């Protein structure tokens, strides 16, 4: 049974996820196992059309008319994660025994299979397919927002083994938690302080400054701005913000979806071209759900794209301070100059 | 010139380290470069005796009588990092322009070369050599504590490429910063709250409980306790605390050094045996320096050992919540049962 535990010293939460329980012996000779897993993937990928029975039954899909659930004919398919870190039916309540505080590991863990083609890559999806992925993200976000006991919905995409992807077939994930992550809580507090002091939105102000300065801008369109943040933790880190102030990703409108799909494809395409398909995490930041207050409405949802070209090591874990060898101004310049047209030639 | 930058939203600090500047093109075809670097290491390791001219001049060494600096004859050798993330002579002052705050990247970055033998491994050092490494750590800690403009001294050891080690030869590092890391500041605040509420030390209480319960204890001796923390972020994460309340690592006494060396060797030996030499980060947590207050004296220094068997991915970066598939109680049981004697047979 998965469990949230809070550290008595740092106050940070972890999920002890026994569903994906690794016995200590599973970590021994991990290289052999990886080789083996890779072979299995090529033979029978559980995310490829025709292998639908290898996943739990689908909870949502965009599919061709007159095709049945859990059969081919889908464009995007959402299924519960087979090795879920959190479980929807988890029972129990908060416990506090002396220094030790825990919560049942109740929540949602889903996989969004983004496209039928095993070898496809997000920047090269047909534009309409990229929009479909975002539609699926929005649908799942809104669906889980209605569950009163969930407080946060984390959508993310890991690409490449170094970035945590265990399967090659293009997919993203959704994890919904019964608590507000400390990262988001901290940003909300900061935005409130700023609002009180300046009487304007920290996020909206930041977008305006970045656009004015221009040196860290990677791309923009009518609805979105992509820039390398001033204090980038990772080389080529890029944030994608809607111009319009919206606290929840679930508020995204149809006419924004196309522009968001286009700018994600654009930025990922530049990254793929310039840095030869680097591993990355693409991470949603959004307001907590079921906590409608002035504070949470002050939040401004966005995506953080974190290329994994450097190694997070002892100094970062000790201090929480990241060392980044590439100034964001240089990264932005390099990405804006990357000619992604070259790469798209001859690609599907 | 390296620079600290504070993120206007998260308030987190990063170091933009232009001394180790990576041009974007350096990230392309990184696999080829790694292969090449590895070959170079075997041919001429800059940390091996006889190659002393390949490093900056030594700033400290434990060496045999009548041997000259920067020549063979040392047991432990400390040199400035050739690719320093922070520089001692960095000039300038804090800047705040609109939303953007920065500090000059002034600080210290040193490498502690732990042993002359290239192939040695910490758990298998002669016990006296392990003590020498700690003596060097303490000497450097105390040395830099005397610089009034430094606020924190981070000692850490990265082992294995996945954990950030770029050279194989056994070494550790020291980075001293002009600001107090947010991780440590948060722990100090929490310890103060606890002190006000319970009138006792959070850390001392935690040690006592862990020893009583026993289920997470990995090893202990007269001066130190090693246990897997209740909310472990990583499988087999282990913390090593002195029983005695000391806020600074620099306060460690001669008679503690031997017990600390012994327990680090013991724990790392168990890890090496049980998990076939996994990559890890070993990270000091200690009170800020040059900030003697009631709050900082309430801190209790310790080491955190973080094996890198899992991948930190999108969910962790989005939420700050780690998913750990191995309960610490199971990890502790496995480590206590690891028979490290077997492995030491036939090793030097």
UniProtKB/TrEMBL annotation, chains A, B:
EC number per UniProt: 2.7.7.12
Gene Ontology biological process terms, A to Z: galactose metabolic process
Compositionally biased intervals (Basic and acidic residues): 23-41
Sequence ranges assigned to domain Galactose-1-phosphate uridyl transferase C-terminal in this UniProt record: 188-318
Note on cofactor: Binds 1 zinc ion per subunit.
Chain spans, region Disordered: 23-43
Source species, domain of life: Bacteria
Cofactor(s) needed: Zn(2+)
Coiled coil feature spans: none
Protein name according to UniProt: Galactose-1-phosphate uridylyltransferase
Organism: Thermanaeromonas toyohensis ToBE
Species classification: Bacteria, Bacillati, Bacillota, Clostridia, Neomoorellales
